[in-house]
């Protein structure tokens, strides 16, 4: 069985109309899955999202920071609020921010608990995957770090957890949380921090102390397409996933590496990205799946619908059901054209990936032998 965790209240996590993180992407995904009849069929169920409480969040964030989020959410004054990561730009405070953040974080905790209990083989929280939030501050559109809470809950049942992040941006908040432990293998494939936020995620960030070698970063160059994504995943991720052999996987399924996504410079298609999702699933372990980045709602809803189909063992017709198609002007589920990648761009991105894989083998492999 697979669970899809959802609430219409997810859309209350809203930084405003000019912000790139558009909450309608979540509603559109839910509506598209409903249009396909995917959430009320054999092997799948819809689960109402439940919020976390403050005691849950204290596993991940400092009390002072949580209190600052609560006050800003209510419109109260917080001295030097910018030191908590808030202000104009990425993380403007908004009314109801605290409650909205508790809900998406709680949904990821639900997913972890359902999988850990054996109630579900897989659970997907599309509102989750907000992997940039740090222990004491917001970062990169992320207020609370739900992947970290999900992993912490899984560690109450399992000895170790594998975390795989295919968002176009480095999963720096998750990396920081588990940088010194060997119980969590963190893997992040992302556009290199040389070019985009958060400016981290280089191969040399290996972990420290007991965690040395358990933090795997695979940065890719602008212009990288499906071939690079699949290569670095297969050569640079799967060997570690197999060797670590965790009994459960947390997968952050950001789709902002898609060629139509505005803030990044990658050239993935939905098909290439979905192949990585399928390979994670084919590892054969229970999976907690989380959303993440994705700033073109017409891409996000199609990609996450296909991802949930893969999770739940369902195939959907490519022609989108008529009611949804008319409402949103989207005709097909899959990409029917891809990016134009020049031969020079392809060569440069391939060479960059080769160097990253060579560095990984040189720096990380010795820690595993």
Give the gist of this structure.
The protein has 369 residues and is α/β, with parallel strands linked by helices. It is built from twelve helices and eight strands.
Which descriptors apply to this entry?
globular; Arginase, Chain A; eight-stranded parallel β-sheet; alpha/beta
Describe this structure in words.
By secondary structure, this protein is α/β, with parallel strands linked by helices. The chain has one domain (2-62, 99-368): Histone deacetylase domain (Arginase, Chain A, 3-Layer(aba) Sandwich), CATH 3.40.800.20. The protein has twelve helices and eight strands. Strand 4, helix 6 (172-177) and strand 5 (184-191) form a beta-alpha-beta unit. Helix 1 (24-35) crosses helix 10, helix 7 (226-236) runs parallel beside helix 9 (270-282) and helix 9 (270-282) runs parallel beside helix 10. The protein starts with a strand and ends in a 6-residue tail after the last helix. The mean pLDDT is 97.
Structural class, judged by helices and strands? alpha/beta
CATH superfamily: Histone deacetylase domain
The helicity comes to 25-40%
Question: How big is the Rg?
Answer: 19 Å
Strand order of the biggest β-sheet? 2-1-3-8-7-4-5-6
**What is the string of SSEs from the N terminus onward?**
EHEHHHEHEHEEHHEHEHHH
CATH class division: Alpha Beta
Distance between the termini: 37 Å
Share of β-strand residues:
5-15%
* Total strand segments: 8
The outline comes out as globular
Number of H- or I-type helical stretches: 12
């Amino acid at each position: 069985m697979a669970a899809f965790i959802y609430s219409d209240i997810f859309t209350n996590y809203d930084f405003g109309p000019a912000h790139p993180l558009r909450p309608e992407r979540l509603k559109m995904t839910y509506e598209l899955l409903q249009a396909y009849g995917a959430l009320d069929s054999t092997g799948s169920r819809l689960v109402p999202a439940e919020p976390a409480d403050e005691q849950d969040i204290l596993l991940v964030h400092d009390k002072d920071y949580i209190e600052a989020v609560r006050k800003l959410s209510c419109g109260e004054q917080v001295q030097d609020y910018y030191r908590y990561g808030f202000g104009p730009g990425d993380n403007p405070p908004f009314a109801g921010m605290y409650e909205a953040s508790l809900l998406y974080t709680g949904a990821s905790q639900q997913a972890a608990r359902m999988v850990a209990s054996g109630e579900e083989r897989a659970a997907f929280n599309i509102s989750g995957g907000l992997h940039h939030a740090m222990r004491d501050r917001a970062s990169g559109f992320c207020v609370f770090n739900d992947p970290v809470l999900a992993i912490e809950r899984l560690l109450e049942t399992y000895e170790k957890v594998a975390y795989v992040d295919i968002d176009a941006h480095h999963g720096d908040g998750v990396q920081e949380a588990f940088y010194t432990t060997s119980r969590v293998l963190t893997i992040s494939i992302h556009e290199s921090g040389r070019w985009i936020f958060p400016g981290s995620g280089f191969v040399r960030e290996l972990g420290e102390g007991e965690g040395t070698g358990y933090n795997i970063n695979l940065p890719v160059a602008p212009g990288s397409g499906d071939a690079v994504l699949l290569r670095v995943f297969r050569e640079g991720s799967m060997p570690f996933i197999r060797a670590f052999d965790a009994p459960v996987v947390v997968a952050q399924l950001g789709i902002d590496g898609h060629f139509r996504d505005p803030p990044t410079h990658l050239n993935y298609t939905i098909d290439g990205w979905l192949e990585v999702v399928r390979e994670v699933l084919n590892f054969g372990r229970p999976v907690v799946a989380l959303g993440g980045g994705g700033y073109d709602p017409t891409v996000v809803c199609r990609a996450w619908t296909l991802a949930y189909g893969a999770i739940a063992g369902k195939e959907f017709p490519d022609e989108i059901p008529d009611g949804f198609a008319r409402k949103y002007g989207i005709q097909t589920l899959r990409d029917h054209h891809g990016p134009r990648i020049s031969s020079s761009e392809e060569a440069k991105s391939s060479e960059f990936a080769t160097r990253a894989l060579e560095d990984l083998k040189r720096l990380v492999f010795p820690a595993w032998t």
